[in-house]
Known about the structure:
The chain is built from 8 helices and 2 strands, in the order αααααββααα. The protein is mostly helical. A hairpin with a 5-residue loop joins strand 1 (125-127) and strand 2 (133-135). Helix 1 packs parallel to helix 6 (136-158), helix 2 packs across helix 4 and helix 6 (136-158) packs across helix 7. The longest helix is centred in the last third of the chain and has 23 residues, at 136-158.
Amino acid sequence: MLTVLDVVRGEADALVRALADLPADAWERPTRCTPWLVRDVVGHLVTTVSRLPGMVAGETPSRADTTAAGYYRADERFGPDSDAERVESARGRAASASPGALTEELAGACREAIEGCAGQPAGRIVRTRHGDAMLLTDFLTTRVVELALHGLDIADAAGRPPWITAAATDHLVRLLFPDTSPKLALLRLASGRGAAPGLTFG
């Protein structure tokens, strides 16, 4: 059975391969993540993945207080100031780098993150930059969110078929539909019959 680290590794590999195959003009196309271009989204991904080694090397909180879904709660982390910092940080990282250099930077960040997480004990808790105490496995799930969903943003902007892996798709569907059959939940939504009673999305 795949671990969440396996899912991260597979999705990172798929993304890096796809980026290496993009023509230069695709890197300058706008994405749905306004005002980011494709290159800016990649810059953002480098930043989000690069945080992992420092977190693993840091303190181990005594207990977790945030889940993977809870990490994305609507509070100051997605407020105007935080969003502005996130936008400019990504644009700054991507501004002067070539597509090849950005792809290599992302590949290196992913390798370092995966190597740092490999061998960590079950139940390892880490502290996020927002101050959350999370199971490492839950935080790795948020990196699947970043790699997979921003991968879709890049693919759509570049006019390419999505390269999201089956493992990442399954992992994120389980995150979104934790309290019911994912296939049944998707059938309800697609057919206009709403979510199952009591279904929550964190």
